[in-house]
Structure formats: C-alpha cells, structure tokens
Amino acid sequence: MSSPIYVAIDTPNLEKAQALAGQVRHHVGGLKLGLEFFCANGHHGVHEMMKFGLPIFLDLKLHDIPNTVAKAVQALHMLEPAILTVHAAGGRAMLEDAKAAAGVNTRVVAVTVLTSLDDGDLLDIGVGGKTEDQVARLADLARSAGLDGIVCSGAEVALAKQAWPEGFFVVPGVRPAGGAMGDQKRAVTPREALDRGASILVVGRPISLAEDPDMAAREIEATL
Ligand SMILES: O=c1ccn([C@@H]2O[C@H](COP(=O)(O)O)[C@@H](O)[C@H]2O)c(=O)[nH]1
After folding, report:
1. Which of 64, 118, 140, 195 is catalytic?
2. Label partner for 178 (CA 20 to 30 A): which of 20, 47, 77, 101?
C-alpha cells in the first residue's frame, strides 16, 4: 500500500522541487504542489513533476465566483491532478460548479478552516464560536455540494469523519512530536491524524527543511 504522506513541495524553484521529489520519492505517496510552485512554473512545472510517477495534488485553494472557478478548473483538465483544492467558503454554487468542471480522475476537496488559524483568528474575520463548529459546517456544505472530501486539521478530522464516513480527509499542518510549529496552530502528530481518520497527510517543512529529507520522510513513515 502506498504511503499516506504527500510531501508539500513549497518552492518557486523547479530544480529545487525536482531535487526534493527525487530524494523522497520512495517514501511518500504523492507530491503536493501549491501556489508558490504553480505561480512560478505553471503547467510546464507540473508536467515536469509528473515525471516522478507519483500522484499530483494541486493545492491551488481556488476561491472566486462560480463561473471563474469552473473555468479555472477546466483549464487544469489536461494536468489531471489526483487531488485539487477549492475553498469551502466560496459557497455552494462555487463548490458544485468546481466539481462539475473537474475531470473524473480528480478528487475535488474543500479547504474548511486553514490549519494556521485558531478561534481568535476566526473571530477577526467575523466567525464566532469554535473552529471545530466552523469545520463541521463547511464539511457539511462540501458533502452536500457533491465534493469528494475536505481539508481540515487533525484536531477536527475525527468529528468530520464521523459525520461523513465515506469522505476523503486531507490533513496538513502535522508535526512530529516536538517539531517546530512555524505558522501552524492546530497541529497534531502524523500518527494522531491517521488514527483519527485522515485519508492522507500533507507534510512540508518537517521534510523539506530537514538536513536529510529522505531520512525525515522515513522517520515519519515509521511512526505510522
Ligand atoms: O489548511 C491548510 C491547507 C493547506 N496547507 C498546506 O500544507 C502545507 C503544510 O506545510 P508545512 O510546512 O508542513 O506546514 C503547505 O503547503 C500549506 O500550504 C496547510 O498548511 N493548511
């Protein structure tokens, strides 16, 4: 069975991205390419990364009016990403149109509450109450809009899976015990996230900033 770890390739530099993918390719289940990489390298960069033969997760977190998002998703068709993200806060019509525009081999998953946010940050943007309640609301919206799953933190994934047993749950912002949190606020360990129901784990800096990224990936894999 392939590893549930998707390594976040967060660099605008294609050579560095290829070097990291080359180092960890045997100990991860997929490559996650985000805005930083896509803005710098576009479709060409994604094609280059596809050569590693691993599933590609395009984490573009699309969020705009339904027509614009649907057209953007169509424009990604030829890349056939295994996973593509949109923001759940874009609303029902945007989610429905994004899913309808995606290829059959692409899982469209909705970002609920970014793992870099906590209750206080949500209050700043006018969302009162607990983060887990907002995740539950947006997960419900994503499910009823026909999406394949959600992105949430390991702190909420158990509740979300209980409400949506067949959903696909992407958990980023995980940290090995004692690892540097950086800007993440709701981190759990990779093992905890899996035990609580994560379908895949996204791991960035704990691997990419390690002196030996392959060893770091192996060490995380060994905890699962
Ligand atoms: O809520 C979210 C959604 C996406 N991400 C992305 O995951 C990685 C995490 O990187 P680390 O270095 O392991 O913190 C990064 O690419 C984010 O854009 C997220 O962290 N939280």
Report:
1. 64
2. 20
**What is the distance in A from the centroid of ligand 1 to the CA of 185?**
11
Cα four-point dihedral sign 140, 146, 149, 152:
negative
Q: ipTM for the complex? A: 0.99
Mean residue pLDDT across the chain: 97
Render pLDDT for 164-195 as a digit per residue (tens, 0 to 9): 999 999 999 999 999 999 999 999 999 999 99
What residue numbers bound the domain in which 13 lies?
5-222
Question: Probe ligand 1: pick from 202, 203, 207, 209, max atoms within 8 Å of CB?
Answer: 202
Among 40, 147, 42, 51, CA closest to 93: 147
Distance of CA 110 to the CA centre of its chain: 9
Q: How confident is the model at residue 1, as a pLDDT?
A: 72
- The CATH number of residue 218's host domain is 3.20.20.70
For the chain, the first-to-last Cα distance in angstroms comes to 13
Torsion over CA of 99, 100, 104 and 105, rounded to 10 degrees?
Answer: -30
Strand partners, 57: 32, 83
* Count of domains for the chain: 1
Contacts of 70 (CB under 8 A, 6+ apart): 97, 98, 100, 101
